[in-house]
Each structure stands twice: as structure tokens, then as C-alpha cells.
């Protein structure tokens, strides 16, 4: 081990999975050093001018105060590591500080160490990691939380919002992040630049609050953006010490300081990156794949098997089968006799799935029930906006106006017709219904006045492409192209991130990104054009930001009771911040993209996504929609921020939680994935 005191040390990263590896530079300034991580084109992250280390000594007005800063006093090397050490003096004693840097996984790794040597506890203090990027604006991605400011959801007041105006802060608990990183994209002289801060999530020692974790986020400065980790404080939407804990918005999260006893050592590992960005809207993509490399969440070992999941789901599907006269199908609710196509009901999906699944993994008389269900659903009444998607068995009435649900139902019909023809089933009624629905929506989309509000109508693209293959006619493909091209123009640059893919939230969401992924893949399959595959990759990377890539340490509660593993589940949206099993339906498309691009990580991830979501099934094959991995409850009022995380709402068991497992398994089976 040798000490050094010289200027301009540069450590180039070793071979990595991504090109344009960043360099790590220690720049001498007045007998001390600043740390800089530099990428191509002027992309960089640099330690703050006031010092590499910052500790707050107090707490006032719901935020840390009394910040004290320190610069490195020594620089030394130890093998592949470069160590910076220093001290920070406070009224009650001294912090001994050390950063250890090295190249790792194509990034710059640092493990920061704080040791409190005072004679009494350091009370109401806050530790931090802070680096500055020389760019501003709203181009921040905090996975599952914030997408280029959440412009579509911001008006509701229910979601985090960010414009990049100086003084804005956005800090959230690490366990809120499916992928634990913060990234920024900003315009440079010759294109776009990017930077990212990755964290290894953990509870913070000596926290004043129960289950207190580090927080991750950004703060807007004049012409710059500060990336930071804080030892607990959270902020959003112009308010400090708040968290997004309920569907309608935010609640107080006060007093997130530390009380550190003498002799305590606290360490935090994080990773830094700076890089050129290939195109506007792609600054988050490099951190996505870096997070996959770091966490490698691909192993399905210990997860439920396909066959066990399908047997349970088939068993539970039996409890939802309803027949009254000619009406037949699977009910959305356990206690209400309502057949609902699309979205939460998915009464249409088994019409495809039950034809494909092996008899041993399907409900009894699967094909016969598929025939009965789709024969009846084909009688859905049309209105001036398409067809109704809800049928009430008790009244014999059709109702509801849900374009999104219509599109999802149309794809299920298209898949059922395709496999039904091969299986010798009578698909005539299904075909008549599907052709009529596609004629209607193709005409609507081709109308010059068509201007969809959100990404939800991207769900029409795949069934229109399928209708062209089933029935011929370029009109269907023309409409699909128009919709796909329109959504690419709106969202690939992230000026309007994919959003609105659900019926219970109007904000950026994984379902909107999934709709775009599905649309672009369908257009690629229909046309063979490379642009659609490129757009599908972009939409998939947005989808992946919602996929949990790490197993969160959970407090005592229902999830911990089951030794629940979070990796492979998907966060819902910046409004509804629980995780759910919807990733099972996305998984086949992730696999399909992995096949098309020869990406084994996507193929492996797709299997994990399906199998992991099979956790929490009860003996009947039922599971609830809402595991709470973070400080959040899917309701309007809570007593406080504590005790929410680790909970599980198992009573909301709408039929998608059964149908999508069957539907996705059928898609995997058609791709040759063994289900037993």
C-alpha cells in the first residue's frame, strides 16, 4: 500500500459489457482531490466543490440542517482500489471518512465509510453521497417512480412530478425502486449525454424511524443536477419529509434522522456512470442493463414450477365458471356473476389459452368451455364506440365503454381464431365478431381526426395485425402502422413517456409501456421492418424499469411469512406503488424479444417473471393483487407511514390474476417452453 500526492490520476475501466466505459479521475485542487467520472462527449459526474463528504448536524423544518463538508486529506492505492481518506469535525466529535473506488461491471464502484469517534452520540445527523452532473432539465428516470417528470400524471397531483427547475428535490426510499438507480439525460453540444447513480439498497443503521432506509434521488441546481443518497430524508413535489404512501398522494414522513453511538461504523456501496446517449429518450437504457448486470436476477431456482402454478390456477378457474342458458364464461369477481372482457376481467383470454394448454394443466373440458365462452362473448352488443365489454348474468344486459378492454379482448379472439382453426373448432362466430370489431376500430384510427389521449390504444395494434393475417386486407395493417408510428413519435423520445395503460390511473405506467412493446413487436412480425424492432427494444427497456431485480428485505408481515421474493414482480405505476403479478403477461413478449435479438438475459428473465409471480397462491389457486413492498397502501387514508410495508391484500382477486397465468403459459407453450 502506497500513498500518493499527484494530479490527474486516470483509471480506465477494464473490459465491460457496454462500450464507452467511463473513466475515473482524481483531480488535485489545493492539496486535496475532487472525484470525477467521465464519459464521452462531456458526460460527467463530479464531487461537489465544497467537499467529497457532507454530513448534516441537525434537523429543522422537516429537513437536515447544519451541513458540514470535508475534502480528502490522503489518496492511496491498494491493488485495484484507490482510497481517499479524511476527517470531518463536528461539535460533539469527529467523523473518520474513507471512499474506496475501483472499476467494476463497466461502472465505477465506491464503498463509502463513516466512523463516528465522538464521546457521545451524534444526534439528529444525516449522512449523504452527493455528485453533480453538468446538465439540468426533467430528463430524470427513477424506476417505478419518475419518468422525465411524469408529464402525463403530474396534473392529477397523485404522482411524483419534476420539471428540473432549480430547487426541486425528488428523494424516495430505496425499497420503492424496482431497479435501484437514478439517471439523467441532458442535451450536449453534439447530442445527448447521460449519467447515473446506482445503489446497493439497505436499511440505514441507527435510524430514528422504524424500518428506515437510505433514500435515493436528485435535486435540481442552476444548470446542473445533483445525484444523492441520503440516510433517510425524502422529498417530492415541493414538499420535504413526505412519501407517496396512498393512491391519492403523499403523507408526512418526518424525523428521518440518525442517532449514531460512539464507535459506530456505517458503510454504503454505490456505483457511478457517465456516458454518451445514442438518441433522445434513451438516457435511461444504459442504467437499465447495468442494473441487470449488477443484480443478475435470472435464477428461477426455488420459485414455483410452471406445472404447479398452472394446476393451481386451473383449479381456481373452476370456481369462476358460470353458465345461464346460452350465456357462459368466467366471472370477474368471486361473488358477482359478471363476465368482463379485457383489463381486470379477461373472460375472453381462456378461449385461447384452454386450446393450447396440455389437458393435464387445464381445467376440465377446457376446449369445450373455450367454445362456449367465445360463442357467447361473440354476441357482445355494439355501440357508437365499439362493443360493450361487461355482461351481467343477473340482468342479461351488456354495458361499459372501455376501448382499452376492447383492444385486449380483440387480441384474445384473434389468438383463439388462429389456434381454433388448426384445432378444428368452429370459429365462425368468433371470426364474424372479430372482423366487425377490427373494421370498426381500423376505421376509427384511420380517421384523420383520430388523436388518442394516452398509450392505451396501442393495444389495438396487435389485433389489427393479427386480423390482417387471418382475413387479409391491407386496411387493418394500414391502421396498425398509423397507430404504431404515432406512438413512436410521441414516446420513443420520452417527451411523452408511455402512459395510461390501465383504467384506474392516468399516469405513466408499465401497462402503457407494455402496450407499446406489444404493438411494435406485432408490427415487426407483420412487416419485418427494423424500425419496429428498435422501438420494441426501447419500450421493453421502459417495461424493465418496472421489473424488480432484487430481493427486498421485508419486515415482519404477510410477505415475510411466506419467505416472499420480490425479484421478477412488477411495480404498477407512479400512482399505484405496489407490486403485482401482471409481469406474467409481459414475460412472453420479453422472451420473444430475447429470441429476436439473441439476448439470453431476456429469455432467462422472462421465465423468472412468470415463475416468481406464482408465489403467494393459496391452496385454492387464488392470490391477491397487491403485495406492499414499500411504504404504501392502496387506499385513501392511513394512520401513518409505518406498518404498511410487508403487507398483502389478498381479497381483491379479479379474474386477470387467473386468466393471465393461463394466457401467458399458452404463449410460452407456443414458443416451445416446457410447462412441466
Describe this protein's structure.
This protein has 14 helices and 36 strands. The chain has 676 residues and is of the alpha+beta class. The strands form nine sheets. Strands 2, 3, 4, 5, 6, 7, 12, 15, 18, 19 and 24 form an eleven-stranded antiparallel β-sheet that branches. Strands 1-8-9-10-11-25-17-16-13-14 form a ten-stranded antiparallel β-sheet, covered by helices on one side. A three-stranded antiparallel β-sheet has the order 28-31-32, with no helix packed on it. β26 (321-324) and β27 form a beta hairpin. It is elongated and about 85 Å long.
Largest sheet: 11 strands, antiparallel
Structural class call reads alpha+beta
Shape: elongated
Query: So what's the CATH class of the largest domain?
Result: Mainly Alpha
What fraction of the residues are assigned to beta strands by DSSP? 25-35%
CATH architectural label of the largest domain: Alpha/alpha barrel
Oligomer: single chain
Indicate how many domains the architecture comprises.
Answer: 2
**Mean pLDDT figure:** 95
Portion in helices: 25-40%
What is the count of DSSP helices, taking H or I runs of 4+ residues? 14
Observed structural traits:
Glycosyltransferase; 2 domains; 11-stranded antiparallel sheet; 36 strands; disordered N terminus
Write a compact overview of the structure shown.
With 676 residues, the protein is of the alpha+beta class.
Question: How are the elements arranged and paired?
Answer:
Blueprint lengths: L1 E3 L4 E4 L10 E7 L2 E7 L5 E4 L5 E8 L2 E8 L3 E5 L2 E10 L2 E12 L2 E10 L5 E12 L6 E3 L3 E2 L21 E5 L7 E8 L2 E9 L15 E7 L2 E7 L4 E2 L2 E2 L1 E5 L2 E4 L5 E3 L4 E13 L7 H11 L10 H13 L2 E4 L2 E4 L7 E3 L9 H7 L9 H12 L4 E2 L2 E2 L2 E3 L4 E3 L3 H21 L4 H19 L14 H11 L2 H18 L18 H18 L2 H15 L13 H4 L8 E2 L7 E2 L2 H14 L3 H13 L13 E2 L20 E2 L6 H15 L6
Antiparallel strand pairs: 1-8, 2-3, 3-4, 4-5, 5-12, 6-7, 6-12, 8-9, 9-10, 10-11, 11-25, 12-19, 12-24, 13-14, 13-16, 15-18, 16-17, 17-25, 18-19, 20-21, 22-23, 26-27, 28-31, 29-30, 31-32, 33-34, 35-36
